[in-house]
Design a protein that fits this description.
Blueprint lengths: L4 H7 L4 E6 L5 H9 L3 E5 L7 H14 L2 E5 L5 H9 L4 E4 L5 H11 L23 H11 L1 E6 L2 H5 L1 H4 L7 E4 L1 H7 L9 H16 L3 E6 L2 H10 L3 E6 H16 L2
Parallel strand pairs: 1-2, 1-8, 2-3, 3-4, 4-5, 5-6, 6-7, 7-8
């Protein structure tokens, strides 16, 4: 069984950095790894991925030693099961607004006695039966980590209850959706948004949960790291490529 490097890094208190990915070519996973990122987030919610294309991205990431995280489209038991069965062990779930949402997620990702995940060992997660049933079903609960998105004031207001749910590992604060919920859509640096996020970091850390967020500049990444954020999602593959291309053409077309 492949070690969950991201899980170990977070437990050790390390800061980890990685981009969201929308491009379906596994080469982008390899490039991210070779560039020194710690993880990639394969974005099914806002990207054109199928389960099959996610699986190929996961294979490429693991081959290069970078952790693949998958953001699913919704808190769906069936979708989460399919993603876990292809061997994903870091799953990111959007729009968690309440303790009930968090409880539902834990039931989907954990086998008995912690949850109700569907059991099958004829899957990539069990190395196609190479891992015996006792090891697969017995150890999977400890090797899969859940990352939940808090994306609105409802989730912020319920966070003190959400963080008490056993099986939730990382609280991810989504600044863009939160800005919309705060009435300042797109203004991720607005005091309403920043202050809500800072308060959320304090609540999560008080209950021993790692915290993540999205940022688009090294300066903002450092700011959130200093505040206590460990899991930093840095920009998106298509945006990073666009910025690099624009920079080159601006220098060449003068």
């Amino acid at each position: 069984m492949i070690k969950n490097i991201l899980q170990n890094s977070l437990k050790e208190g390390k800061t980890v950095v990685g981009p969201f990915c929308k491009l379906q070519d596994p080469a982008i996973a390899e490039i991210a790894a070779l560039s020194g990122f710690d993880f990639i987030i394969i974005d099914m919610e806002h990207g054109p991925y199928s389960v099959e294309s996610v699986q190929n991205m996961v294979r490429a990431a693991e081959a290069r030693g970078i952790t693949p995280v998958v953001r699913v489209t919704e808190n769906s038991e069936t979708l989460i099961l399919r993603i876990l069965d292809i061997g994903v062990r870091c799953i990111q779930v959007p729009q968690i607004c309440s303790k009930q949402d968090a409880d539902k997620l834990v039931k989907a990702i954990k086998f008995y006695p912690k949850g109700e995940r569907g059991m099958c060992r004829y899957v990539r997660a069990a190395e196609y039966t190479n891992i015996g049933p006792t090891d697969h079903f017995g150890k999977a609960n400890d090797s899969v980590i859940s990352i939940i998105h808090i994306e609105g004031m409802e989730g912020i207001n319920n966070l003190s209850e959400i963080v008490k749910v056993d099986g939730i590992d990382v609280i991810f604060l989504g600044p863009y959706d939160l800005s919309q919920s705060c009435g300042v859509p797109g203004e991720v640096d607005h005091p309403k948004v920043v202050n809500a996020m800072k308060e959320a970091v304090e609540v999560a850390k008080k209950h021993g949960k790692a915290v993540g967020t999205f940022t688009e500049s090294p300066e903002k990444a450092k700011m959130w790291k200093d505040i206590g954020v460990q899991y930093i999602s840095y920009a998106v593959d298509v945006g990073l490529i666009m910025n690099a291309f624009k920079y080159i053409t601006s220098k060449l077309k003068v």
